[in-house]
Amino acid sequence: MKQRIPEQQEPDLDVASLIDMTFLLLIYFICTCSLITPEADLGIRLPGMVAQATSVDMPDEQIIEIRKDGNVLLNSREFDKPSSQALPELMTTLLRYKAASDAAKNEAMVTIWADDDTPHQRVIDVMNACAAAKIKNVSFAGGQE
User: Fold this and answer.
1) C-beta neighbour count of 100 within 10 angstroms
2) Extents of the domains making up the chain
3) DSSP per-residue string spanning the chain
4) How many whole angstroms separate alpha carbon 128 and alpha carbon 133?
5) pLDDT tens-digit profile, the chain (145 residues)
6) CB atoms within 10 A of CB 141
7) Largest Cα–Cα distance in the chain?
8) Cβ distance 117 to 68 under 8 Å?
9) What pTM was estimated for this model as a whole?
10) Which of 26, 28, 83, 99 is the most exposed, having the fewest neighbouring CB atoms within 10 Å of its CB?
């Protein structure tokens, strides 16, 4: 007995739905992408160094005095509270001093004078403020006022 194998038909592929799906994806990605403006087209002018018309007399060094009660004085002016460990006022002043010294092409120098009974942590706080201002020439003074 012979068996007959039914003829197989070629499967049809509906291309219309694939094309519709492709266009929908294309529209989705076009709508969701953001256009980035290149930096060259922004037209920003960065500030530069301005040469000084007259020379400014800068002190040779700044003297930071640390009292035994924790008060920090820079050239006889009190900065921050004795409980403040970060010393933000002193740090901003030292940053300005460093910038002015760099503009005048001088080396920024700081002398730390600490009272004999000053806690060591307070001296470290002042040294951290100097380091944050990138002042590398720091010296210590001792003795009586």
Assistant:
1) 14
2) 62-141
3) -PPPPPPPPPPP--HHHHHHHHHHHHHHHHHH--PPPPGGGS----------SS-----S-EEEEE-TTS-EEETTEEES-TT-SS-HHHHHHHHHHHHHHHHTT---EEEEEE-TT--HHHHHHHHHHHHHTT--EEEEE-S--
4) 9
5) 678 877 888 777 788 888 999 999 999 988 888 776 555 555 566 666 666 566 555 567 788 999 888 889 988 888 888 888 888 889 999 999 998 888 888 888 999 988 888 888 888 899 999 999 999 889 888 765 5
6) 12
7) 125
8) yes
9) 0.57
10) 83
Tokens of 117: 């009974």
| Overall CATH class of domain 62-141 | alpha beta
